[in-house]
Q: What sequence folds into this?
């Protein structure tokens, strides 16, 4: 079984939100996963769709892999670095805002 990978790093969407989309496409054939992501209402769906297309392009460039029979074997989301910002509050104090980032990895495998 031949495998091909693609990575997306520093996506400015919280990992918890991206995992909802990633769980929906895990184990699906590539074309079915892209169709599902096209009509998904989550913002991370566009980025995951681009990532899967990138992995398919990697498989096409690598050669020897039939891109019509690829499935999403694994897709996982890790947390990236947190961008910290401050928001001014009452009486001269401040509260911290954590802007989380995600690292996504997709592994496609030939059926």
A:
């Amino acid at each position: 079984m031949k495998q091909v990978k693609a990575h997306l790093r520093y996506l400015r969407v919280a990992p918890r939100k991206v995992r909802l989309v990633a769980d929906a496409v895990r184990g699906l054939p590539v074309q079915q996963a892209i169709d599902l992501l096209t009509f998904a209402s989550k913002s991370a769906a566009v980025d995951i769709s681009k990532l899967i297309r990138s992995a398919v392009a990697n498989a096409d460039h690598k050669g020897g892999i039939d891109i019509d029979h690829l499935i999403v074997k694994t897709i996982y989301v890790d947390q990236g670095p947190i961008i910290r910002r401050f928001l001014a509050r009452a009486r001269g104090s401040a509260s911290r805002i954590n802007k989380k980032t995600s690292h996504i990895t997709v592994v496609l495998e030939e059926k």
Observations:
- Residues 3-110 form a domain with the Ribosomal Protein L22; Chain A fold (CATH 3.90.470.10).
- The helical segments are 15-25, 30-38, 44-62.
